[in-house]
Design a protein that fits this description.
Layout: H1 9-45, E1 48-52, H2 62-78, E2 81-84, H3 90-100, E3 105-109, E4 131-133, H4 137-148, E5 158-161, H5 166-180, E6 192-195, H6 202-214, E7 227-229, H7 232-242, H8 247-258
Parallel strand pairs: 1-2, 1-5, 2-3, 3-4, 5-6, 6-7
Helix pairs in contact: 1-4, 2-3, 2-7
Amino acid sequence: MLRFQSLRPAQEELCFASVSSLTLMRDRAQMRKEIEQCYELIHRLGRGVVYLGSSRMGPDHPHYLQSFELGGEIARLLDCTTWSGAGPGLMDAVTKGAMQAGKPVGGFKVGKEAGEWTASNFHPYLPLETYLTCRFFSARKHGLIDCAVRNDSCDRTAVVALPGGVGTLDEMFEILALIQLERIGSELPVPFLVMNYDSFYKKLLDFLGDCEDWGTVAKDEVASLWKICDSNSEALSYLAEFYDLSSIDKRVHEVNLKSTHGIVS
């Protein structure tokens, strides 16, 4: 009769370590591949404006309509690709706004966003060639950050933080730290806008003010890294000034605004 010889503790640890190492190596390889796929998608669709925002604020929320209008207005103003996490909520709003404006959209989604009950690798209406479903959050973040990096002075990109929760704050402060440390935007600055609809971010801004008082943040350090906007018109004016858009661009933008219709279904 064959008998299975039990492994000694040291042998068991070595066995588990080998399996863990193989799993880690495999995951790293898959993550690198996923990051490369993100870069390929960006190369194909072009850099542009990256939107961060809540997946829970649906069409019945006033911030959804404001985000929808902003997505279309900025897409027309900067004539660029609209990028997001390709999820529901405010990500859906800016995507539909840009689509109605006739501008390209792209996204890096995950299987399940916060507040969703079911997971899906597929977007309900975007063509497969315009988004990538990421297994790794690090790959998704690589993609969202790279979308906004300006390689040429002609590139018109931006990061726009809409109202959101934990995930939005995570992405906001990661990008903020990269700008602070000059990892991005050191040669060609990238405008970072925070949409403070209905004073949504007031308490966060108050907290950062407290950080200044405690000495953990330098005076006006954060304020110099982003632009707080209370309305869409303020955001559009800031971007128009940032990119020194000509009067012709502004007139075309005004005409496009007048031709805006209802939300894409």
